[in-house]
Amino acid sequence: MSASRRRIVYPGSFDPITYGHVDVVARALQLFDEVVLAIAVDSTKKPLFTIEERQAFAEKALATHGAKVRIVVFHGLLVEFVQEQNARAILRGLRAVSDFEFEFQMALMNRKLADSIETLFLMPRGAYTYLSSTIIKEIGRLGGDVSAFVPPVVQEAMRQKFHGVKP
Ligand code: ADP
Where are the beta strands (DSSP E) in 15-151? Predict the structure, then answer.
């Protein structure tokens, strides 16, 4: 198998990383040798955490996988980044039907831009299907318990960001 077939790029905002993302990465590693978790800089979304913070959370959350997971920041067009990484596949998570339309459109647009790159979708375990970074930030802002959904490092950072509590 060529090197490119064994590597998949998982792009997103990861603002912040949740156990849903972590679960998708673990599943992908059953199929691929390496997952490149790619944090998009050019997203139109206004992030809560800086790129450096998001990168640090992801490093910590995925540390158990060692060299099989690489966390990188990317600018510009995803398909170009995927080609630069010598990969041929893009990984996305699918939670509910509501994800489908946007993901379908994006996957087909990426195919139009680069026909040789495939998008693969993995579903997280049931308990994480209703989990999104947006909802986590909302619960965190309101002081709710997010310990079942995000790694401790993210929990602490949100406590500090929203409520000024030092870890
Ligand atoms: P984006 O800003 O590109 O939507 P996100 O950081 O929100 O990126 O998510 C990155 C990818 O992970 C997307 O494909 C998203 O659908 C998926 N994802 C997010 N949360 C979950 C979850 N709880 N379970 C499975 N996949 C998820």
Answer: 34-40, 69-74, 89-93, 118-122
Residue pLDDT, tens place only, 56-67? 999 999 999 999
Q: pTM score, two decimals?
A: 0.94
Residue bearing the CA closest to ligand 1, atom 8 = 12
Residue nearest to atom 20 of ligand 1 (CA): 132
Cite the beta strand spans of 17-133 per DSSP E: 34-40, 69-74, 89-93, 118-122
- Does the beta carbon of 20 lie inside 6 Å of ligand 1? yes
pLDDT exceeds 80 at position 111 = yes
Whether 128 lines ligand 1, by a CB cut-off of 6 Å, is yes
Domains of the chain are: 7-126 (3.40.50.620)
